[in-house]
Amino acid sequence: MARKSRKANRRHPLATVVLIAIGLVVTGGGYALFSSTTTASADTNTAASQSVIDEGEKLFAANCASCHGLDMQGTADGPSLIGVGAAAVNFQVGTGRMPMAMQGPQAMQKPVQFTDEQTAALAAYVASISPGPAIPDESLLQADGDAANGGELFRVNCAMCHNVAGAGGALTEGKFAPELTGVLATHIYEAMLTGPQNMPVFNDDNLSPEDKRDIITYLKYIENNPSPGGNELGSLGPVAEGLFVWIFGLGAVIGLMVWITAKSN
């Protein structure tokens, strides 16, 4: 009786082989399903990206090639775009500076000519021809950095042209540094990264991405916090404020003295 019970509890010799086979079938089927889903998703993303690039190529041929050349090598009317990257295109087109309305010392800002989608397509096409600085990640554009560090970096690297309060200023030969009030954080970052017009390039070796974020934080802070001392007089600094005092303040005092003298006589 005990011998029969032990025999009943004994597994069939092929049971282990069958279990292993079932496990392999389940594992292989699951992996195949996952791989096919991932591949399909990747193919869809690639197709979508290619369609955006193709749209950018059409926009470039119709609006940009006359100055920059169909091969982007540049002409007498426009520089080469090889290596400028998506960030430069997004800045120049996204701020309305390109396409230029007329030749001049520098491209003037004007109403934007393209939608956000068209601008992204142009940037994707230019970047697909030659690598260059990419459009910054959203995490670097939040005004949550160190405003004190950003202010110090701005005064050392930017204030000589843009003014310590970002009010802008004149340069030589009809050029100028634009005002930075109301400028999107994306465009501020891209300007530092690509050096448009007369601005020097501040790559990540000059100013790290965190440094750029701190500068954006500083600019947004002074933009959202008006001067506690009263009228800012355009934030043009002590020269403008002193001139205002000399012309209007001292003039008012002289006028009052003349009035008092005339009254006494």
Report on this model:
- The chain has helices at about 1-10, 15-65, 65-70, 85-95, 115-130, 145-155, 160, 185-195, 210-225, 240-265, and strands at about 170, 175.
- The chain has about 260 residues and is mostly helical.
- The model is unreliable at about 35-50 (pLDDT under 50).
- Helix 6 crosses helix 9 and helix 8 (about 185-195) crosses helix 9.
- The longest helix is centred in the N-terminal third of the chain and has 49 residues, at about 15-65.
- Among the domains are: about 50-135, Cytochrome c-like domain (Cytochrome Bc1 Complex, Chain D, domain 2); about 135-225, Cytochrome c-like domain (Cytochrome Bc1 Complex, Chain D, domain 2).
- The chain starts with a helix and ends with a helix.
- It is elongated and about 130 Å long.
- The chain has a two-stranded antiparallel ribbon.
What key attributes describe this structure?
single chain; 265 residues; mainly alpha; Cytochrome Bc1 Complex, Chain D, domain 2; 2 strands
Task: Write a brief caption for the model.
With about 260 residues, this protein is mostly helical. It is about 60% helix and about 0% strand.
Question: How do the helices and strands line up, and which of them pair or pack?
Answer:
Elements: H1 2-9, H2 15-63, H3 65-68, H4 85-94, H5 116-129, H6 147-157, H7 159-162, E1 169-170, E2 176-177, H8 185-194, H9 209-224, H10 238-264
Helix pairs in contact: 2-5, 4-5, 4-8, 6-9, 8-9
